[in-house]
Amino acid sequence: MRAAAPIVVRICVAGGCHSSGGSGLLQALREAIVQAKVGAGRNAGITVKGVGCLGPCGEGPVLAIDAPPPQPSTRLLGAAKPCSVSELAASLQAAERSGSLRSWSPPAARPIDQGHPFFTLQRRWVLERCGLIDPESIDEAMAAGAYRQLADVVNRRSPGAVIQAVVESALRGRGGAGFPTGQKWQRVASQSSPQKLVVCNADEGDPGAFMNRTVMEGDPHRLLEGIAIAAYAIGASRGYLYVRAEYPLAIARLRNAIAQAEALGWLGNAINGTAMNLQLELRVGAGAYVCGEETALIHSIEGQRGTPRPRPPYPAEKGVFGLPTLINNVETFANVPVLLSLGPKAYNGGTKVFCLTGQGRRCGVLEVPLGTSLHTIVHTMGGGAMPGRRLKAVLTGGPSGGCIRADQLDTPVDYESLKALGTILGSGGLVVLDDTTNLVDMATYFMGFCRDESCGKCVPCRAGTVQL
Fold first, then answer.
1. Measured between alpha carbons, how far apart are the two ends of the chain, in Å?
2. Residue 101 near residue 75 (C-beta atoms within 8 A)
3. Which among 110, 289, 323, 429 could bridge 209 via Cys, Cβ 3.0 to 4.6 Å?
4. Rounded (5°) CA angle 390-429-114
5. pTM of the predicted model, to two decimals?
């Protein structure tokens, strides 16, 4: 008698789908499958698990259903609701008995076309494991490759060789400024201080931007591995992970991941049986937008008011508690294991994770090669404006950025090209604006945002935003 073919149901429980019922769907479907197993009098081959972001957040809650060989296939569904799980569970039981999803018709959920350019044009390097693994399981993360590069680095590579690989990869900071990451690491490593610190800036505050949250909620061990590799490269034995208070799910998953990594020797003392130590502490942000600025973040970690200070000295020379400090954001650190795995030449500047939001047809999280045109992202992948509407502009860079007109969308999304248009890449939020948007009102709104979030220390910001 043929053994029941195992079917895996992956339900997104990241922030977006969690808010639209993903976690409730996960629990309800698990219970329905258990009841179906009991009713069938056998151990049905269906596994239900929670995963990170699958991408099309506007369709949430999203789930993927994987059928195994000899007829492997994956079906992606959106807008599934807990109230429909009994019908879904019964349908899955039938598919499981047949061993195939090819002729399966999903009930009470909307099929999502995986052949759409939104999926086919992506290059998921940083998000490779998001949506595939249980973010609360270090075993699943390691089975999918987590900590392999850290093990290779601490056992086989010198700190200088790691930094040189980062330099040659052309990785630039993904937090907005785009400073060459390798140069920053070199500067910190060259300091003579016997103690250095590594800090991850996870205080993501731009409206419409949730790239860092996606990584932290969906693949926290990738972030921890990148931080640990950076600490090894610069000679740091202590670090801080500064996460905004408004990300409770990310905070919970990071705390769980840190505890798991310490238990298995990937953090703490004698990492992977070597002389490397790294004590990593998670700090919850103070709730201020300005704390995303690195010197304000430093003050907040020290227990002071989050107020920026003039530079120099730069954090690489005098950072947290006066010690040389390396500060990168979540996506920057998450790129490090990727570039070491691929090699600097193959990595070649890497990818960028974007959040496509606003008045477009398809909103969500996507990852594309750096330099992909805005037209490709917004129109080809995102579907452009809603039916009956005309795209007017795309906002990049959040409150500090600017709007790019519809006739400028052939612009490559990279640091220099956007700067030439008077805006910035920023952290990666792309807000689609249609012909119902008043751009003057939009500018007024963001100026008010900057006024309200200003620390009030400098006259141009304190008084200038009010005057404007």
1. 76
2. yes
3. 429
4. 75
5. 0.93
The answer to whether residues 166 and 341 touch, using CB atoms and an 8 Å cutoff, is: no
Enumerate the β-bridge partners of residue 112: 76
- Number of alpha carbons in the 13 Å side-chain half-sphere of residue 405: 4
Structure tokens at 294: 């690195």
DSSP state of 243: E
What does the alpha-carbon distance between residue 1 and residue 134 come to, in Å, rounded to a whole number? 32
What was the pLDDT predicted at 107?
67
What one-character-per-residue DSSP string does 83-114 give? GGHHHHHHHHHHHHHHT--TT---SSSEEE-T
Size of the chain in residues: 468
Q: In angstroms, how far is CA 386 from the centroid of its own chain?
A: 26
Neighbours of 156 (CB within 10 A): 8
How many C-beta atoms lie closer than 10 Å to residue 91's C-beta? Answer: 18
Dump the DSSP string for 429-455.
EEEEEETT--HHHHHHHHHHHHHHH--
Q: Hey, what domains does the chain have and what are their CATH numbers?
A: 7-114 (3.40.30.10), 138-346 (3.40.50.11540), 351-437 (3.10.20.600)
Distances (CA, A) of 110 to 106, 457, 467: 8, 51, 49
C-alpha 212/C-alpha 353 separation (Å) is 9
| CA–CA separation, 369 and 395 (whole Å) | 19
Please tell me the distance from the alpha carbon of residue 419 to that of residue 248, in angstroms, as a whole number.
34
- Sheet holding 429-434: strands in order across? 364-369, 351-358, 429-434, 391-396, 402-405
Helix axes 220-234, 148-156, angle to 10 degrees: 10
Backbone angles phi, psi at 50, to 5 degrees: -90, 140
Q: Left, alpha or beta for 315 (phi > 0: left; psi -120 to 50: alpha)?
A: alpha
Residue 311, burial from CB neighbour count under 10 angstroms (0-12, 13-18, 19+): exposed
Residues 158, 250 contacting (CB under 8 angstroms): no
φ and ψ at residue 200, rounded to 5 degrees: -100, 120
Write out pLDDT tens, residues 303-332.
998 888 888 999 999 999 999 999 999 999
376-407 tens-digit pLDDT: 999 999 999 999 999 999 999 888 888 999 99
> Quick check: helix, strand or coil at residue 216?
helix
Q: What angle do CA 399, 401, 403 make, to 5 degrees?
A: 105
Cα–Cα distance measured from residue 187 to residue 167, given in angstroms and rounded to the nearest whole number: 12
> Left if phi > 0, otherwise alpha if psi is -120 to 50, otherwise beta: which for 350?
left
